[in-house]
Amino acid sequence: MTPELAAQIVKHFIIPMFDSENKKDLRKKYNEMAGIKSAASTVLGDLKLTETLSNELEGVRNQVDNLKEKLEEVTVERDIHCRELTQLKVKFLQQKKMIGILKGQLGLSFKIRSGVEL
């Protein structure tokens, strides 16, 4: 049995057995007679603490799940941007090469027009 299943059993079955209105009144009278100020020292108090911790654990798990989903979304976006960056780098290098070729042709054209021998 997992701790989560045990917490659910406590929450849905055991606590309701101890937590009726009549039992609350009797427990209150007993606690007053015994000098107990809180239910924390009773089985019910322990069970309620288990329930509270179970609820907190569930909340933390939900937060972790949400963070995992967000991480996955951001990872997909990063991968898309990396591919776009790679494509832009390829285009840049192609244009740089083309500019070099055009620059060479322009220089050659100037030499031909100015009558410089090759």
Walk me through what this model shows:
This protein is mainly α. It has one domain (3-88). The protein contains three helices and no strands. It has helices at 3-18, 21-34, 43-114. Helix 1 packs antiparallel against helix 3. The radius of gyration is 38 Å and the shape is rod-shaped. The termini are far apart. The model has no long low-confidence stretch (mean pLDDT 82).
Strand content: under 5%
Residue stretches low in confidence (pLDDT < 50, at least 5 long) are none
The major β-sheet equals: none
How many domains? Answer: 1
The tally of strands reads: 0
Write down the secondary-structure element order: HHH
Mean pLDDT: 82
User: Kindly, what is the distance between the CA atoms of the first and last residues, rounded to a whole number of angstroms?
Assistant: 90 Å
Number of helices: 3
Structural class: mainly alpha
- Tell me the helix content: over 70%
Taking Cα atoms only, what radius of gyration do you get, to the nearest Å? 38 Å
How would you sum up the global shape? rod-shaped
Pick out its properties:
single chain; 118 residues; mainly alpha; 3 helices
Topology diagram in text:
Layout: H1 3-18, H2 21-34, H3 43-114
Task: Offer a quick outline of the entry.
The protein is mainly α and 118 residues long.
